[in-house]
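#onboarding

Welcome to the new folks! Below is a worked example of what a typical request in this channel looks like: someone posts a single protein sequence, and someone else replies with the predicted structure as tokens. Don't worry about understanding the tokens yet, we'll cover that in week two.

Example request:
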Amino acid sequence: MIDAYGHVPNGAGSYYLSRSQPPFFFAMVALLSPGDSAGAFARYLPELKSEYAFWMEGAEQLAPGGVHRRVIALEDGAILNRFWDDSDSPRDESYREDVAVARDAPREPRQIYREIRAAAESGWDFSSRWFADNVSLASIETTEIIPVDLNSLLFGLENAIRAGCERVADHGCAEKFTRRAASRRAAIERYLWDEARGSFLDYRWTANYRVQVVSAATLYPLLTQVATDTEAASIARTVEKDLLKTGGIVATTQNTGQQWDAPNGWAPLQWIAVVGLTNYGERQLAEQIACRWMINVSRTYRKTGKLLEKYDVVDADRPGGGGEYPTQDGFGWTNGVTLKLMALYPADADLASANDCPL
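Example response:
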């Protein structure tokens, strides 16, 4: 798909081409060579660079304060990214739902459609992270947000390209991407780290403030190792205080009726938490999250014979819900994450209650 289109489309249909998936491709490539990720990055350098060019299109022409598609140049010249979609019409796959939202919103319908599509690119469709009032889908303003998760992933992509270039002895490329990763890290630190909250927060670039919604996106800087050791320790305490629930970690602290908000937990967010916290030596908390999630999944499986797309982590006796469609049966990311956690923590896999999880 990258060779054909320059990015990974949001789905395998032509009407998804106007938006991407979040840029996890570099992490997928790394799995091909766990003991030598640089070797895999070197092999896939053309595709890694192609995806990076897609996300960074127009960056070199931007003056401070400028914006183009997925790139924002802040007033100090720092470059960070946002989610975007090239189309401003209702989504083909959710046409009726998008028209209904636009009908109830006080803004131009095409603006609403673009914001909804940009949120779909994030994978968090939908969440209070993107809402101006933290409550209502009608207030969605995704393109005005600089997200923690996206910029952490792009930091990971920059480091992957740097490592691949080092492996093939392209020193100019390696130096270029070393600088780009360092610049992004500094900008993430400056704009997204909130010392008082002990958390990385999304940044509303149009109004120059951090969005005070604590979400599991704060764990992405641990996944790609943007965070300092001190920041990681603060995030661990924030996760314990605000996000850790009976059945795993919750997507956000807000309960809006949207599926990427409380009380829902999602398998990829549990995995990101476990890997990120382990990267910084927070192994006890990582195991606690894994243990609670496995118990939640197992309990539902015993009751229904199903693995689900999402789970209620606050009341673990209920399936996940909310959003614009029913909770889906099966789901690869639930299956894959559960299998991996069972392999990592076999002693926790058959526990019956979160109270039994190791302290």
